[in-house]
Design goal:
The protein has 170 residues and is α+β, with helices and mostly antiparallel strands. The chain has a single domain, classed as Jelly Rolls (Sandwich). It has a 6-stranded antiparallel beta sheet with strand order 1-2-5-11-6-9. A 3-stranded antiparallel beta sheet has the order 8-7-10, with no helix packed on it. The radius of gyration is 16 Å and the shape is globular. The chain starts with 7 loop residues before the first strand and ends with a helix.
């Protein structure tokens, strides 16, 4: 391979977290509309990162064959070497619910989402969607961890399943 893998520090509020990211898609600034709510899941705002895709072409092929999405936007591989991800919310727009899945590739990262009472609920499965307006983070681990986040626009049947689930929890 002629290109090198691009690895960046994952930042929250402009601060390094100790977590690293490998972007498989990169924001297309020519079509960027300026409002983060509307771009993460839409393919027209994202381009494949040729330099990183050389290493993860099979991952991209797998994602493209998922029947969960009408289209995909931002795709990130996140890895940490024994660091926690600080507790945070992805956004606070009350009128916007992000459509994405988070896939854990190992059980080393203790990922949690807090409910409205502040109780941590640890994710025990390998693939999850959650309301990214809720506080979430990971606990410190003695082992490295690896996960993938795929933002997109859900197929309507998958969206209905999630929304019905949400309604039973309200």
């Amino acid at each position: 391979m002629n290109s090198s893998l691009e690895i960046e520090n994952f930042k929250l509020n402009h601060r390094d977290t100790g977590v690293h990211k490998i972007q498989l898609t990169r924001r297309n600034n020519l079509t960027y509309c300026g409002d983060e709510r509307y771009i993460r899941g839409k393919s027209k705002y994202w381009s494949i990162c040729n330099e990183n895709v050389n290493y993860f072409s099979e991952t991209i092929s797998l994602i493209n064959n998922f029947s969960l999405f009408l289209e995909t936007g931002r795709i990130l591989i996140l890895y940490s070497t024994k660091h926690e991800t600080p507790e945070h919310v992805d956004h606070s727009y009350s009128d916007f619910l992000q459509e994405f899945i988070w896939i854990r590739l190992d059980n080393n990262k203790r990922f949690y989402v807090k409910d409205f009472l502040g109780v941590k609920h640890f994710v025990e499965c390998s693939c999850v969607w959650f309301d990214s307006r809720s506080l979430h983070g990971t606990e410190n681990s003695i082992f490295p961890s690896l996960s993938i986040r795929i933002d997109g626009i859900f197929e309507s049947s998958f969206r209905e399943v999630i929304y019905k689930y949400i309604q039973t929890k309200l």
